[in-house]
Structure formats: structure tokens, C-alpha cells
Amino acid sequence: MKNWKYFLMTTMVGSALVLGACGNDTSSEPKEETETAGDTQDEAVLEGQVAGDGSSTVAPITEALVEEYAGVQNKVKVSVGVSGTGGGFEKFIAGETDFSNASRPIKDEEKTKLEEAGIDYTEFQIANDGLSVVVNKDNDWVEDLTVEDLKKMWIEDGTAKKWSDINPEWPAEEIVFYSPGTDSGTYDYFDEVILDEADLVKSATLSEDDNVLVQGVQGDKNAIAFFGYAYYLANQDTLKVVKINGVEPTNETIESGDYSPLSRPLFVYAKNSALKENPAFYDFMKYTLENAGEMAEAVGYVSLPQEDYDKGLADLEALK
């Protein structure tokens, strides 16, 4: 298997993934079997197309899985857009995709729309994440923030927020905010656990592409942002992560739940009819569940206990 953590830390994750295997691999030497291939390598060669969309937070895991799967089933094309959790669900509801990546649980209104559209689905949790608050590397005053500090900073109250408003010993400089867009599951999660559904500061720059947020913080000493843990790890040489309530996000604190309240689950929602009717999609989802834990760890997230992946595989098998 490729060293995906090294790959992620030396290249930016793109804003869209269109990864498949068609043609180029046929002229190269066959890949050696690896333990990550699971049972898929012993199955018949498949052909077909699989389409997904959704969370940019889940994207690094999906990118790694799709690239590795291309070496196993090189006639299956898997294309995955990154339009945010909410945007991904919109396409899922419209019947445009086979699966939808999500960095939050599906909302009741999305469930209702899927039911109205006649789309049955299955939820698969594939990893855990610690939503990371980051500042510029040259920021030498912020080390730790409380949840109350975050509320004071990020909730719109009609004032121009300055660092000195949070701590009078900090600079009297305006804070520059970067946030995931409103279609992002990361935004929704932050809205739920930090903002309590109050308005986000109006001065914030919003983007569904986490790389835009990374670059914004890299370029401004007074900037602050929040996004998935893997994006921080990929850029930790140029960003500074902030402790929340005295706890830094790490694999250990995310897995234990000590990094609270910003630890969260990551999901893939799969269309049941596509799993039953498209062998290529079923095979890709099987590969995903067999390898998601290792891929999650490789790109900077936290794997689930093996029994959770086993349950997901059992749920998948029941749909075959």
C-alpha cells in the first residue's frame, strides 16, 4: 500500500475527486497482493461506474480508497465530487449518486426527502474525526481556548471581534475568520455544538473547499479557522492547532472522547437499490468497509473498533 499519510502531507487534497481505473494500469506490472485488498482480489473482474459526492472532510479517506481500489478492479470507474455534506445529500436525494459522504448524521428533513423520492439507504460509519481549530503559525498568543471563548469569537453580535476581546493581554487586532461553507457537515457540527444555531460572524470567509481555509490561515497572522483533523495534519508545518478546554486533538484524545465537544463520526450513506443492482458499487462498498480503518489512520483520522466494521459488512451482506 502507498504511504498515504506522507502523500497527504506533501500534496493538497483537491476540491474534487475523479479517480478511476481505465486503461493506464493495463500496461503496468500487476500490483502485488496486499492484506488491504481483502477478499476482493479473489473475485471476478468487474466493470462499471460508481458515483458519489459529499463531505470534504471524508474526502481524504475516499481518495485513498479509490486510488487503491483502482489497482484491484481497474475496469471500475469511481468518481467522487466534494460539494460538502449538504450538497452531497442534495445530489443523493436527486438520484444523481450511489453514495454520499457525510461529516454529520443525516438530518430529519433529508430523511423525509429521500423517503418522498423513494430512495432507501444504509448508513455506514467509517471513522472518527476531531474538528480542529487552527491559527497562523506566527500567532504566539493563542494556545488554548474554551468553548465559551469560541462562542464569543464566532457568534455574530454586531461588533468587530478583536483578539483582545477574548483576552486583554492579546493584541488589539481584528480576528480574521475562515469557515467551512453552510453546505458543509463541518459547519453544521460547529453550529450545533458551539454556535447553538446562532449566526456565524458575518465577516467570515466561507468555502466548501478546506484547502481555501488552510491557505487563508497560512497567509494571515490574525486568522483562525476550523476543519477536519486530517487537513490540520497535512499542513501542521504551516499551521498551529489550538487546544480546546486544555485538550489538543490527537488520535488518542479523539478516540477516547477527551477532545470534547469537537470529536465526531464520519459516514458514508449508500443507496440500497444501487448496492443490489450494481455489482461494482457493492464491491467498492465492501472494499471500503474492509479497508476504511487503515485508510482513516493513514490519512490522519481515527479508525473504529473492528467490530464496528464487521457490523457494517454484515449490514452490507444483508442487502446483497
UniProtKB/TrEMBL annotation:
NCBIfam families: ptsS_2. It comes from the Bacteria. CDD domains: PBP2_phosphate_like_2. Residues 1-20 form the signal peptide. It is found in: Cell membrane. This is Phosphate-binding protein. It is a lipid-anchor. The complex is composed of two ATP-binding proteins (PstB), two transmembrane proteins (PstC and PstA) and a solute-binding protein (PstS). It holds the Pfam family PBP_like_2. PROSITE patterns: PROKAR_LIPOPROTEIN. PANTHER family: PERIPLASMIC PHOSPHATE BINDING COMPONENT OF PHOSPHATE ABC TRANSPORTER (PTHR30570), PHOSPHATE-BINDING PROTEIN PSTS (PTHR30570:SF1). Keywords: Cell membrane, Lipoprotein, Membrane, Palmitate, Phosphate transport, Signal, Transport. Involved in the system for phosphate transport across the cytoplasmic membrane. Part of the ABC transporter complex PstSACB involved in phosphate import. InterPro entries: PBP_domain, Phos-bd, Phosphate_ABC_transporter. Belongs to the PstS family. Residues 47-289 form the PBP domain. Its main location: membrane.
